[in-house]
Structures are given as C-alpha cells and as structure tokens.
Amino acid sequence: MQSFAYSQNQTDVMKKAVQDSSKDIVIHQEVNFKVPPQKIYQLLLSSKEFSASTRKSFSVFSENSATIDPTVGGSFSLFDGHIIGRILELVPNKRIVEAWRVVDWPPGKYSIVSFELSSNGSGTHLSFYHIGFPEGLKEHLSTGWQQHYWDAFNNYFQ
Predict the structure, then answer these.
(1) Spatial separation of the C-alpha atoms in residues 65 and 63, rounded to whole Å
(2) How far apart are CA 24 and CA 114, in angstroms?
(3) Class assignment of domain 2-156?
(4) Least crowded by CB within 10 Å, which of 24, 33, 36, 150?
(5) Which pTM does this prediction carry?
(6) Of 104, 54, 64, 110, nearest to 87 (Cα)?
(7) Model pLDDT, residue 54
(8) Distance CA 99, CA 121 (A)
(9) What phi and psi values does residue 38 have, to the nearest 5 degrees?
(10) Helix, strand, or coil here: 91?
C-alpha cells in the first residue's frame, strides 16, 4: 500500500461525513461492473484506457483527453483538462483516493474522491465517495459521475 498524507482513518471520516453532512456536499454512489476490480483500477489509472473510455462515449473529447501519472503524488488531467488533481493513495486493485477539482472552481479549492473496489462474483462493486466540493454542485457532479465515469466505463467494457 502506498499513501500520500491519507489513511484508513480518513476514509472512515469520509463515510461519517456522508451520514453527518448538513450542507449536502457529499456524494456517495454504489456501482456494479461486470469486469474484475483489476480492470476498473487500471482504467482509473491509465491515460490510454481512460481516454479511450471517454472517447468511446463522448466524441467531443480528444483521443488523448486524459493524462495520468499513476503514482502516489502523481498528477492527473481528465476530459481535456477540465478536471485536474493528484493521487493521494493507492491500494492496488482496492482503493484510489484523489484530490480532485474542476478547473473553474475557486483557486486552491480541491475536493476528495475515493474509489473503493471489491470483488462481486466475477465483477466489481465500487463504493464511491466525493466530499468537499463547493456548495450547490451536488446534483451536477452526481450526474457527471454517472454519465462520464460509470456509464462510460460500462460502455467501454462492452
């Protein structure tokens, strides 16, 4: 396991925040995929695969729409630079935690996203948390995660 200023305790804090959020600035989604956790983990960390999954579902994005340094502390740029951030924690085939932001958010404003992967038969169960984004964006971001990540991933693996 590699970690960059992040720990299991912080994952627990995120789960608690889902229960305690009075400002409604937490997204929690549960998603199932028909491929094993290794494939989802790789897709989330591969510039080539993430770009291909994006391009397959959305022709507006370039063939190299993602640049991902798949190491703890590594930076990423997704959707032709619309989303940027850093990888905070990697537990191979189990967990990815990122500092994540939309480029037009206020300067220095980052949120935290966590992808928790587990086997579900021959597929994957993903438990996803997104916390700390600006107020008023929950519905927009929730839809974006569904369309640009989960639906695009399912389409990519068909």
Answers:
(1) 6
(2) 17
(3) alpha beta
(4) 24
(5) 0.85
(6) 110
(7) 95
(8) 30
(9) -60, -40
(10) strand
